[in-house]
From TrEMBL:
<dbReference type="InterPro" id="IPR028357">
    <property type="entry name" value="UDPglc_DH_bac"/>
</dbReference>
<dbReference type="InterPro" id="IPR014026">
    <property type="entry name" value="UDP-Glc/GDP-Man_DH_dimer"/>
</dbReference>
<dbReference type="InterPro" id="IPR008927">
    <property type="entry name" value="6-PGluconate_DH-like_C_sf"/>
</dbReference>
<comment type="similarity">
    <text>Belongs to the UDP-glucose/GDP-mannose dehydrogenase family.</text>
</comment>
<dbReference type="Pfam" id="PF00984">
    <property type="entry name" value="UDPG_MGDP_dh"/>
</dbReference>
<keyword id="KW-0560">Oxidoreductase</keyword>
<comment type="pathway">
    <text>Nucleotide-sugar biosynthesis; UDP-alpha-D-glucuronate biosynthesis; UDP-alpha-D-glucuronate from UDP-alpha-D-glucose: step 1/1.</text>
</comment>
<dbReference type="InterPro" id="IPR036291">
    <property type="entry name" value="NAD(P)-bd_dom_sf"/>
</dbReference>
<dbReference type="Pfam" id="PF03721">
    <property type="entry name" value="UDPG_MGDP_dh_N"/>
</dbReference>
<keyword id="KW-0520">NAD</keyword>
<protein>
    <recommendedName>
        <fullName>UDP-glucose 6-dehydrogenase</fullName>
        <ecNumber>1.1.1.22</ecNumber>
    </recommendedName>
</protein>
<dbReference type="InterPro" id="IPR017476">
    <property type="entry name" value="UDP-Glc/GDP-Man"/>
</dbReference>
<feature type="domain" description="UDP-glucose/GDP-mannose dehydrogenase C-terminal">
    <location>
        <begin position="315"/>
        <end position="417"/>
    </location>
</feature>
<dbReference type="InterPro" id="IPR036220">
    <property type="entry name" value="UDP-Glc/GDP-Man_DH_C_sf"/>
</dbReference>
<dbReference type="Pfam" id="PF03720">
    <property type="entry name" value="UDPG_MGDP_dh_C"/>
</dbReference>
<dbReference type="InterPro" id="IPR001732">
    <property type="entry name" value="UDP-Glc/GDP-Man_DH_N"/>
</dbReference>
<dbReference type="GO" id="GO:0016491">
    <property type="term" value="F:oxidoreductase activity"/>
</dbReference>
Length: 434
């Protein structure tokens, strides 16, 4: 099939590339000329495992092309994916100006039937708005479909190629059939394509992300309480997670959720609720608890150093909001760094992928090391903010040799308590015995 993807951010790029992988002819459109030039040469503008291999393969095969011309994209595709940014505006709502701006141009430019697909996370009612804007100037038939994306950063290619479900919000049979045809190769395993109305599809995305944020946040509160009563959250998590009604996943406590999705979507749903006179009390609590959770290690650090962090140096492992990404949006590491700097501490940080992004943001306010062991040299303590695999089985001897105090503050419960204890290292983690 002929597909166009408007917007080559994270979702657009993964969507375009994976759709080319199943034999579709895809054109990805972006207004950023330099980015388009780079992509034409095979350069992947984001860090996402395995995307580079698919990217190169499909460009070489001529199935994946790039353009700065919206009209070229609209001429080419029978299905047009909108994968445009929907940033949080000043008051927590989703800013739809990019989506509606492109919708207006689509209305002016299309000359034959198109299915326009909202792929970005957009508030309930957006498909109707897009429809209305296009209809104002369109001279041909078209349909608008909501098809929310459930990709996780770091696993995006796998999630796209083997989705647990596809959600299609559509009130047109013709559009639904085309979408089903497009996604058929991805659900051969028998996973469902669930068709519903546009508004329900739009809400499904917010509800899923907010629920997952709630699940994590609940476990974070249980972890905090475990510390008060001498219970071990790892045991509690296992005990709870084996109940299939609860499930094992997304029960890992830590220093809070971050990234470009959960924080934005929880706030947007809360805001959208208020606009309709509905007060999501649970969402308020999630936002509040998560904000506090990001700095939950600080009281432990302060206590260890007798409330005097001035002049202390901290080695910090992990800057990205989670492993396998260079994304630092809403990363808990940034909240910790902020506080430590205010209290006069110095930071030597290491992250396998995210250092460039943090340097861009913080300049020389913190130091960066070339390896995880490098940053430990003469540091007073080690803080772990992200559970990158490389941190999982460290050489504890090298840690002890370099640190001034044998102490680790771990925001992601990376190690077994006994393993660290055996090494004679003081270990503070989340919801477990210190
Ligand atoms: C999330 C959803 O998982 C995807 O389904 C969705 O498509 C995506 O948002 C989106 O809306 O685009 P993502 O933000 O990439 O994906 O990351 P997750 O793997 O879900 O992790 C989010 C945050 O929760 C991370 O900060 C992670 O460290 C934290 N987390 C996750 C925990 O603290 N505990 C857990 O048990 C799981």
């Amino acid at each position: 099939m002929k597909i166009s993807v408007i917007g080559t951010g994270y979702v657009g790029l993964v969507t375009g590339t994976c759709l080319a992988e199943t034999g579709n002819e895809v054109i990805c459109v972006d207004i950023d000329e330099q980015k388009v030039q780079r992509m034409r040469k095979g350069e992947v503008p984001i860090y996402e495992p395995h995307l580079d291999i698919l990217f190169e393969r499909n460009i070489k095969a001529g199935r994946l092309k790039f353009s700065t011309s919206l009209s070229e994209g609209l001429d080419h595709g029978e299905i047009i994916f909108l994968a445009l940014p929907t940033p949080e505006n000043g008051d927590g709502a989703a800013d739809l100006s990019y989506v509606l701006g492109v919708a207006e141009e689509i209305g002016n430019l299309i000359t034959d039937y198109k299915v326009i697909v909202d792929k970005s996370t957009v508030p309930v009612g957006t498909a109707d708005k897009v429809k209305k804007v296009i209809a104002e100037s369109a001279k041909c038939e078209f349909d608008v479909v909501s098809n929310p994306e459930f990709l996780r950063e770091g696993f995006a290619v796998d999630d796209f190629l083997k989705p647990e479900r596809i959600i299609i919000g559509s009130s047109s049979e013709k559009a639904t059939e085309l979408m089903k045809k497009l996604y058929k190769p991805f659900v051969r395993s028998g996973n469902p394509i669930i068709v519903m109305d546009e508004r329900s599809a739009e809400l499904t995305k917010y509800a899923a992300n907010s629920f997952l944020a709630a699940k994590i946040t609940f476990m974070n509160e249980i972890a905090n309480y475990c510390e008060k009563v001498g219970a071990d959250v790892d045991q509690v998590r296992k005990g709870m997670g084996t109940d299939s009604r609860i499930g094992k996943r997304f029960l890992f406590p830590g220093i809070g959720y971050g990234g470009s999705c959960f924080p934005k979507d929880v706030k947007a749903l809360q805001k959208a609720g208020r606009e309709k006179g509905y007060d999501f009390k649970m969402l308020d609590a999630i936002i509040k608890v998560n904000k506090n959770q990001k700095t939950i290690l600080l009281p432990k650090i302060r206590e260890y150093f007798n409330n005097d962090l001035k002049g202390k140096t901290f080695a910090l492992w992990g800057l990205s909001f989670k492993p396998e990404t260079d994304d630092i949006r809403e990363a808990p590491s940034l909240a910790i760094i902020d506080h430590l700097l205010i209290e006069g501490a110095k930071i030597n940080a290491y992250d396998p992928e995210a250092m460039t992004n943090v340097e861009r943001l913080l300049g020389n306010k913190i130091n960066f090391g070339s390896s995880m062991y490098d940053v430990l040299q003469d540091a007073d303590a080690l803080i772990i903010c992200t559970e990158w695999s490389i941190f999982r089985t460290p050489d504890f001897r090298r840690i002890k040799d370099r640190l001034i105090n044998n102490v680790i503050f771990d925001g992601r419960n990376v190690y077994d308590l006994q393993d660290v204890e055996k090494e004679g290292i003081s270990y503070f983690s989340i919801g477990r015995k210190d």
